[in-house]
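Late entry, written up from scratch paper. The run itself happened at the end of the previous shift, but nothing got recorded in the book at the time, so transcribing now.
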Amino acid sequence: MDRDDERLGRALAAFGGGGGGGGGVWELVDAALACAARDRPDELRARRDGIVERLYARRRLQQLSRRTSC
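Output as recorded:
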């Protein structure tokens, strides 16, 4: 288990563990976004593009690697 997995596990545990099938992760994301929008809307707006890039970067890299694989 790497450091990010450990941090996620602690966050989910603090949040109540979430539901089955990974739903807890999405509940945590939704809650974090709601808090950020409420408490720091300007910072969230400023970070929005970077957040979106991080959400899609891994998927895009996987798509590119599949196209170039022999």
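The CA atoms of residues 3 and 44 lie 24 Å apart.
(Scratch paper discarded after transcription.)
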